[in-house]
TrEMBL record:
Protein name: N-acetylmuramoyl-L-alanine amidase AmiC
Cell wall biogenesis/degradation among keywords: yes
Organism whose genome encodes this protein: Rahnella woolbedingensis
Reaction catalyzed: Hydrolyzes the link between N-acetylmuramoyl residues and L-amino acid residues in certain cell-wall glycopeptides
EC category name: hydrolase
Keyword annotations: Cell wall biogenesis/degradation, Hydrolase, Periplasm, Signal
Annotated compartments: Periplasm
Pfam families (alphabetical): Amidase_3 (PF01520), AMIN (PF11741)
């Protein structure tokens, strides 16, 4: 019996995203992702419009990187990798990890030179992967590479009111709750961005509900947010301490004792209140080491400067420049993210201020101005480059 290996296609896996999407991800499109192979090549079909789908090559050592929207790893995918490793001698190694909470990344280490061809057909991005010397044995013609122009996406800001539900955040001496105050400011900010600047914004929570930190990061990715801003009004051990602060992520620990204290207490939220914390925290740990993170932190610091320049007009600042600390909620690999401490709720005067609608309005306006000014500057830079 003869089997035409070149024509026989082995279905490695084919999954609808809706099947892999637990909990919050009901809004995901049921785009189908498949990975098949014939004698010489690995074939992928990915939704072309989803910009999270990426296939590219890294060198020294030669690696093919495949990113696809996926919040958890289906067993079919794990199996597919085992098959690929066994079937193709030019695949030295195949690894699967999370690139971000909603993007799975396969890294294939290749002996020799990888060859990638791609084409787009009916909204499906088709990618074939092989190795240079193996490519000579592949009988079929190499598809022509085409690119689909991407429509300009309207700007979107993900606003994250800190804490909520069973996690009250800090509580002032007069009984003011951080979780309530920051929700008011966040809601005002959303309205102001929309009405004054035509910028669309989405909140991670609309009500007094608990949302784990990694879900907040994940929501920003799901909405393909251009910016992420987390709003807080924490406490400190010394009730004399006052003023607003802006934080971006640090990869190397906190810049000051205050930053360390605040980030440690914020990050403990998931440990205290979220039962799934241990498994999901892995996402956040992995994203920290990604190459994209450096560029994102740079942009986050820039975003933070635009916010600080506007906050200082309405309230005094604990530090006039953005600081850095390891806040888990800022660990998006590609979305510039900052955390704003609007005031210290443990300071008597500031607790009073935080409860006043006039102060909440002033702070929301300052944040809206800062966001708008960051976008204007970004646009200018993009036009110049
Ligand atoms: Zn807080």
């Amino acid at each position: 019996m003869t089997i035409n290996h070149a024509r026989r296609k082995l279905l490695i896996f084919g999954i609808g995203l809706s099947l892999t999407a637990p909990r919050l991800y009901a809004a995901q499109k049921a785009a189908r992702i498949t990975m098949t192979s014939d004698a010489g090549q690995i074939h992928l079909a990915l939704p072309a419009a989803d910009k999270r789908c990426r296939v590219f090559v890294l060198s020294a050592p030669e690696r093919v990187v495949i990113d696809m929207p996926m919040t958890s790893f289906p067993p079919e995918l794990e199996h597919a990798l085992t098959v690929v490793r066994q079937k193709f001698p030019w695949v030295a190694e195949g690894r699967l990890a999370h690139f971000s909470p909603d993007v799975a990344r396969i890294v294939l280490q290749v002996k020799g030179k990888p060859v990638i061809t791609r084409s787009t057909e009916n909204g499906v991005l088709k990618v074939s992967i092989t190795e240079q010397s193996a490519a000579q044995d592949v009988p079929q013609a190499i598809p022509v590479t085409t690119t689909t122009p991407r429509a300009e996406k309207p700007l979107l800001v993900m606003i994250d009111p800190g804490h909520g539900g069973k996690d009250p955040g800090a509580i002032g001496n007069e009984g003011t709750y951080e979780k309530h105050v920051v929700l008011h400011i966040a809601q005002r900010l959303q309205t102001l961005l929309d009405e004054q600047h035509g910028i669309h914004a989405v909140l991670t929570r609309q009500d007094d509900v608990f949302i784990p930190l990694y879900h907040r990061v994940s929501l920003a990715h799901q909405h393909e947010a251009d910016l992420f801003i987390s709003i807080h009004a924490d406490g400190f051990t010394n009730d004399e301490v006052s003023g607003a602060s802006v934080f971006a992520l640090s990869e190397h620990g906190a810049g000051s004792a205050m930053a360390r204290y605040l980030s440690q207490s914020e990050n403990s939220v998931d440990v205290l209140y979220d039962n799934d914390f241990k498994t999901d925290d892995q996402y956040l740990k992995e994203t920290l080491f990604d190459l994209d993170q450096h560029e994102t932190i740079h942009r986050s610091m820039d975003f933070g400067s635009h916010l600080a320049a506007n906050i200082i007009k309405v309230h005094h600042m604990h530090s006039p420049h953005p600081e850095q600390a390891g806040f888990a909620v800022l660990k998006s690999p590609r979305i510039p993210s900052v955390l704003v401490e609007t005031s210290f709720i443990t300071n008597k005067q500031e607790e009073k201020l935080l409860g006043e609608p006039v102060f909440q309005e002033k702070m929301a306006r300052a944040l809206a101005e800062g966001i708008n000014s960051y976008f204007i500057n970004e646009k200018k830079n993009n036009l110049l480059s």
